[in-house]
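TA notes, week 10

Several of you asked for a full example with nothing omitted. So below is the full record: structure tokens for the whole chain, then the designed sequence directly under it. When grading your own attempts, check the secondary structure regions first.
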């Protein structure tokens, strides 16, 4: 099947509108891209990982950081704020892995780096990535096929 968002153009426009909205929340673009890549890695969305890495690279992201997103905890390449966003992304993506999906400590750490508007942008960005991952993984979209 083709990408369902392309078959239903209103869906693609809605996803793009959500993505644009998250960019107005005060979170650095690089952080949003890292969060997108990490959630997509967890969900096994090769299309989104490929697209996210290409976008991040085009926006000046370093190869060291791109190579280390999956193992961000054990590398020196990320700021404390980026680590908090990546931790939030992992927990919000793996909702069924624990009864307390996003523990207070994870949320509080993110809130110590981002104000309410930025947290909203992060949450919507993570949710949008997860939504899009599910569409593209389900329909077996191939990386680089866009």
């Amino acid at each position: 099947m083709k990408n369902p968002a392309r078959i239903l153009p209103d869906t693609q426009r809605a996803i793009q509108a959500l993505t644009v909205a998250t960019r107005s929340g005060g979170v650095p673009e690089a952080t949003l891209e890292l969060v997108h890549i990490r959630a997509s890695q967890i969900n096994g969305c090769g299309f989104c990982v490929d697209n996210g890495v290409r976008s991040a690279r085009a926006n000046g992201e370093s190869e060291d950081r791109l190579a280390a997103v999956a193992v961000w905890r054990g590398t020196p390449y990320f700021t404390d704020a980026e680590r908090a966003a990546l931790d939030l992304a992992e927990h919000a993506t793996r909702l069924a892995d624990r009864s307390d999906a996003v523990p207070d400590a994870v949320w509080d750490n993110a809130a110590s780096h981002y104000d309410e508007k930025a947290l909203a942008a992060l949450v919507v960005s993570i949710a949008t990535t997860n939504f899009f991952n599910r569409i593209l993984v389900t329909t077996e979209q191939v990386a680089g096929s866009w």
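The chain has a mean pLDDT of 94. Use that as a sanity check on your answer.
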